[in-house]
Give the backbone structure.
Amino acid sequence: MVRLPLTPAEVERGQRLGALLRRARGESSMLGTALDARISPETLRKIETGRVATPAFSTIAAIADVLGLSLDALWAEVNSSAGVAAGGDRKPAERLVS
């Protein structure tokens, strides 16, 4: 099976997802977060850096659960056209966890 290349929009969305998860993780250990989500640290690293632009839903759900993020809010943030949804000057991850 041949995988089609990602569109620029999919790549950008993956980068927004990674940045949002990285900010939400804050000072928490990447290793601890990955292990708590039952994924490899390398997988989390690739998602956070945008190298995996379309991770599996179950992977994102597990990471969001560990970080205490709402999937609805996460989806809204990742899909916002500018990467920042309405809500003032707070960072996206701050809106998700507050």
About this structure: The chain has six helices and no strands.
